[in-house]
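Provenance and format

Records in this collection were gathered into a single text stream. Each protein contributes a sequence line and a token line. The two records reproduced below are adjacent in the stream.
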Amino acid sequence: MFKKNLTMAVAILLVPAFVFANESSNKNSTEHEHSYQEKQGHQEKHDDHEHHEHSDNNIEKIQVSASRLGRIVTESATRTEIINGEEIQEKALMRPGNISMLVAETGGVRVQTTSPTLGSANIRLQGLYGRYTQLLSDGLPLYGGQTASIGLLQIPPTDLANVEIIKGSASSLYGGSALGGVINLISRTPADAYEGEVLINATSKNGQDVTSYFASPLTDDLSGSVTAGVHHQEKQDLDDDGWIDMAGYERGSVRPRLYWQGDDGANLYLTMGAMKEEREGGTLGNATLPDGSTFAQTQSTLRTDLGFIYDKPVGDVMNINVRGSGMNQDHEHEFGAVLEDDNHQSYLIESSLSGYSDKTAWLVGVALQSEKFDSDTFSEFNYSYQVPGLFSQLDYEASDDVSMSLSARTDWHSEYGTQVSPRISLLYSPENWTVRGAYGQGFFAPSPFIEDIDEAGLSHLAPLENITEEQASTASIDVSYALGSVETSMTLFTSEIENVTELENINDIDKAFGKQVRIVNAEGKSKINGAELLLRYRWRNIKFTGSYLYTDATKENDIGTGRIPLALTPTHSAGLVVMWEEHGSHLLGFEAYYTGTQRLENNPYRQQSDPYWHLGLLGQITIGKISLFVNAENLLNVRQTKEESLLLPEQAASGRWTTDIWSKNDGFTVNAGLRFQFGG
């Protein structure tokens, strides 16, 4: 009852707040903030898809779009963490084919493998389930409203300028798919002259990548870019047991973008993308499983998408924004003798009006989201969700040191009814200190595609019945201090999740219709409490970054008599990165990441994992516009299959043949290559 009352109170509060903001903006005309924002004499051009690369020394000038109103990162009450262009370029040398390493080495972010056979993974923010993380491209859900786990491994970092991360419920900003937070991938904007780059990479595990980015002005008011890549990985059986430990794949992708700017301040952004991949895992050659059978596991993916953002000033202080996207993804799966053929579709159309004054910034909008799944093989799982929504946001600057942000969203879900999601954020920033607090609520619409199904498919799963929406409340307090070359921060966070969907074995009586597992809402609540610590120090051309994450994540046990830790959630993890870089000359980096013990489920070999270290070295030499790089990952050659087999002694009720991945599974790997830059 308390949550419902708070939700209604915030929603009611925003209505008069918008009226006040609108009246205030009419009295205090300032320059349109989506085009220009002025702070202490500094003015910087910005729109929803335009960002610039920044060094750590001026990161405070980066404007973020994930918080909807395009605020400068240090002045936004909504905490948005930035992975800047410099870090992206470094991580692109380590893993040119996808963004998994880019986000995995951010504090409070964990990339969790969901299918050991195919290597698919999702992103967990502050211990929350990966299916709650909304992955966006320039603010658009181009990879689907509920991003498939494999999608993380199909996005190259080549064309990224920044990455914005909001942790905790962001349903008030982006709907039910953002229950755990938002990761917004911001693309590079074409400069005033032609520029481009080609990166060629090869690994010691017989993997190859070729990625390219080219951008150029086309006319006085039109520019464009195109990103393309081809990727290959040979399948690997590292422990010689006949089971593929590293899936093999062939992938190609292309994404053109167009940027138009009119004389009246209007902006139009258009993008489309296509990706084709063939991925193969399971038994190798004539090898067999413990029951004597062979088990090939493959996935063929064809994804196409398109999106647009139109932004135009209305008068002196208001702005209208219209955006939309569509995604179509065809899958052909093979799980042993079972073939699954399905299609995912996702659509968004959204319009918002925003305005600004000396003290306030406001936004109100409407949206229609659509999610559709159509299986030719198991039609009983087909669904089509239509979700119209109304959202609003108010940012208010009470003084030079205090500001707040209120946002609320109401969604009318065709399957799960009316859902109201509020969020409040507060900022206090005296001198070199920054203190933020946030509280939010949200929901997630269940689907058959929880983490356990990634590995096994739908053949053993009973149709969904009597499932309710998953709901969560999240809160955090963040304290940061910056002085000269030193930056440090501490974040305390907590979450409570109700109605978590999980897999349950079906008893013998119900197995008559041929299914062995079903998805149910878990009893009780999952609770996650924790703390993040971060320290950055720059000495001349050397940058030190240290981080620590403590996570206390528990759920009620199956018999309801106590609480147990959430599986695959380490209590302690930490990292240290040392990077020595002289731009245009050389780069040398060392990284060390520690992962503590984790509780394991359905693992016949152990109930708790071992802690482990991941060490890496990166070197790059630049001569003119050509860079040569070498990167060594997992120097200690940590590999889970050194401890025990990845294979189960017998097939699980869900249909899977593997344990969960709790450690590294690729061993020591070296990659090296060349980066060629053109123009610019």
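Adjacent record:
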Amino acid sequence: MESAGQFDYIIIGAGTAGCVLANRLTQDKDVEVLLVEAGGRDDYVWIHIPVGYLHCIDNPRTDWLYRTEPDAGLGGRSLIYPRGKVLGGSSSINGMIYMRGQAGDYDQWAEMCGDPGWRWDEVLPLFKKSEDHYRGAGDFHGSGGEWRVEKQRLSWQILDAFRDAAEQVGIPKVEDFNRGDNLGSSYFEVNQKRGIRWNTAKAFLRPASRRPNLTIMTGCHVEKLMIEQGDNGAVCKGVIFTGGGTQWRAEAVRETLLAAGAVGSPQILQLSGIGAAQQLQQAGVKPLADLPGVGANLQDHLQLRMVFKVTGAKTLNTMASNWFGKMRIGLEYALFQSGPMSMAPSQLGAFAKSHPDLARPNLQYHVQPLSLERFGEPLHTFPAFTASVCNLRPTSRGHVRIASADSYAPPKITPMYLSTPEDRKVAAAALGLTRAIAAAPALKKYAPEEFKPGVHYKTEDDLAEAAGAIGTTIFHPVGTCRMGKIGEAGTVVDSQLRVANVSRLRVVDASVMPTITSGNTNSPTIMIAEKAAQLIRENGK
């Protein structure tokens, strides 16, 4: 085993959180930082062209290629479960949507972990710190930060009509989803710069990489953390990883920061002997710290993709149905970085309530001027739009567990979608609301005809069944190393993200979310990393 050296901090994972940590921690010139990443450089052309997510997801060059276990809530189906394996992590392959969630999400976190520092009013400055918003600085947005936020460079009449129809059923038009209450509809704002994807590798890591106190090692697979038993309990001394055919050992003098994501972080903890003792023993791993919450509490947004055929409307299905159309689309992007190739996977968003008595929205729409049978397959040949709706705050809880002590074996991912009566009820109501929008006067001229799931699903039980038939992940796994009060059942990290019963170890990524945010999860993960960096730097002085 070769020594990679001794560092003040070791960051495991150069994804969304890891890139932010690397940038912020190396601002202290007397601090030496090692960043270890399993994937390669973000130099694949399709990472940077927005529509290129189609080529990055389920591609071994950029994706871990995870699959879920067969899910009873989805009729026994197994889903692809994309997670970025490249510099920038999932910010290099995601939908680029800039979304913070709702103020109530963070106020709930603060209550659950007993720390008012996680309240909305406290984390809003952290969102603003890293932001470079096209509107400029204001009460809710920042300017001059690393994380660029822009308007999309396109519009579609069919999406405008959907927005009008949503207004007719009580979903108001708004201009900004990111002020703490995202009720309403608008075109999504995106993390792009002039029509090109803006990932965290460009935003945060590229500037930091010029600093002499940052060492970046790509193509390095983490096998486990180095956990030793000290006088005061377990201590993390660093990490063992393999890269370039060599096994390496790196030591962290101050802390090891696990930023491998909601799948990778619990997997690495479990491989290192940190998790539910009985499960670890069954997998052939010696338990060193009994933390049953590791890998539990998995939450995700299940999207229900309703497809409606239309007439008299321009959609991507027909635009891209021949080589001439595809050439026009390519030429528009080449000349102007606009048009369909600059599209985020979803263009129009809407937030609504599945029941009027709810205090805040619990549904999110991602609406697209296209349709297909499933991800990776060709577009339909008929004009259509897709209205995807998800339950923002599911009560179903799944888990991530290692199957063996082999670090190269993928973990078993069991989301447990639609496993509670509440989630099935919300799913049925969401499909019913989508039908109401499609039937509103503003869409009448396009004669929408439900293609998926089909009008034969009528009752609440029918619609819950339909949700299981068409539901799929929208790629927002969180919660598997949840933050909470130490000693409370299920808690893995405290409010400063320190792992319970193991010193010199923190988890910094979406896995620490005690409950999922009410919207897309990438930018909240940046905020978590900003918060962690602030805590670490304050503690180190």
